[in-house]
Amino acid sequence: MVLSIAALILVVIGLFVGYKWFTNFGNAGAQQSVAATEKLATNAPAAAPAAPTAPPAELDLTDGVKSVATTSFAPPSGGRAFNPRNLVDGKVETAWRPAPSAKNGEGQVIKFEFAKPLEVSALEIANGDQLGDNFEKNGRLLTGRAELPGGRVIPLRCDPSQKGFARFEAPRTRIDKFYIVVEKVYPGRDSRNLAISEIKIKGRK
């Protein structure tokens, strides 16, 4: 009887020890699994940042001009016309010139109206008459200003020796019209009268 009780006690002790060992082993395995998972997560490469969205491309908005008007323009001469529409016809071989009696062009105003409001970001001006050697012969814009709605003004300071286009940045704003005012004219070799070949309007529709 005593032996049976002792044997029973040994069995109970053995079961208890086995249970503790199994429990500890299971916890250790779980901890190792969590640690391995955390290590994998830590070593995983970071996700690449999203590529920035490119801003819309700048467009030539000159074809959106509904009308161009000037204080005056010179009469035809030598088979060429010098009306305001020449400023936006896409040809540097044509030009606008004010009337000869208009103080060489100083004080002249050019008004541009769009068919619908457009977001203007820059103006590009082809100064002088850029047909052949007419550039040196005729007057060029020296200083002026572009007046936008809301009282915004873009100063226009031109290099009278520069052919091609000169760019003038504008505050990005949606407008339906603007004005260019001629302040000073650089005299040409043969004529003091102003000439401007082309004005491009850049921005977004």
What does this structure look like?
This protein has helices spanning 2-43, 134-137; strands spanning 59-60, 65-70, 109-127, 140-148, 152-157, 165-186, 196-204. The chain is α+β, with helices and mostly antiparallel strands. Strands 1, 2, 3, 4, 5, 6 and 7 form a 7-stranded antiparallel sheet that branches.
Instruction: Note the main sheet.
Output: 7 strands, antiparallel
Radius of gyration: 40 Å
Count of discrete alpha- or pi-helical segments spanning 4 or more residues: 2
Q: What percentage of the residues does DSSP assign to strands (E)?
A: 35-45%
Anisotropy-based shape: elongated
The residue ranges in which pLDDT falls below 50 over 5 or more consecutive positions are 14-30
Give the CA-CA distance, first to last residue: 104 Å
Mean pLDDT: 84
Helix content: 10-25%
Q: How many strands in all?
A: 7
**Backbone structural class:** alpha+beta
Order of helices and strands: HEEEHEEEE
Nutshell version of this structure?
This protein is α+β, with helices and mostly antiparallel strands and 205 residues long. The protein has helices at 2-43, 134-137, and strands at residues 59-60, 65-70, 109-127, 140-148, 152-157, 165-186, 196-204.
